[in-house]
Design brief:
The protein has about 150 residues and is of the alpha+beta class. It has one domain: SspB-like (SH3 type barrels), CATH 2.30.30.220. It has helices at about 5-25, 50, 115-125, 130-135; strands spanning about 30, 40, 55-60, 65-70, 70-80, 80-90, 90-95, 105. Strands 3-1-7-8 form a four-stranded antiparallel β-sheet. It has a four-stranded antiparallel β-sheet with strand order 2-6-5-4, with no helix packed on it. Strand 5 (about 70-80) and strand 6 form a beta hairpin.
Length: about 150
């Protein structure tokens, strides 16, 4: 399956699972990875969230004005004050419930940047001798004391 077909499939699957979660589960959690379209009000992502993502709580007291379309969930969420959130389905990596009975996890596909590509090309251009100089060899054999 090509990448666009796979992301469309994942989006539809996540949307269907969320439909069931909203109907059947009072409180559940969504782990969202950092994504350019992920909007968490004026707050945004802070500290480690910028690298690891954020876990959002969906429950009767943490969410209001809930709606969704083909690409994202839109709602207000409580972060010491109400913040408007837009959560693209593509950013969702996990959905789980409070009791631990439902746990859904998706693979996260990262697109390599040109800097990463250049770095990997530079590594492949290293000579065998340079590669060996990076290896630390440890002798774990016991020495006999007499």
């Amino acid at each position: 399956m090509e990448e666009s077909g796979l992301s469309d499939y994942n989006r539809r699957l996540k949307k269907a699972i969320l439909d069931v979660m909203f109907l059947e589960v009072e409180t559940f959690y969504i782990h969202c990875n950092p994504h350019p379209e992920l909007l968490i009000g004026n707050r945004g992502l802070v500290d480690k969230e910028k690298e690891e993502g954020i876990i959002l709580v969906f429950g009767p007291y943490s969410t209001r004005h809930l709606s969704w379309d083909e690409h994202a969930i839109h709602c207000d969420m409580q972060f010491n004050k109400w913040e408007h959130c837009s959560i693209p389905f593509i950013s969702i990596s996990r959905i789980f419930d409070k009791e631990g009975q439902v746990i859904m996890q998706w693979a996260v596909y990262e697109h390599s940047t040109s800097a990463e590509t250049q770095s990997s090309e530079a590594d492949s251009a290293l000579t065998e001798e340079e590669k060996k100089s990076r290896v630390i060899e440890v002798d774990f054999t016991k020495k006999n004391k007499k």
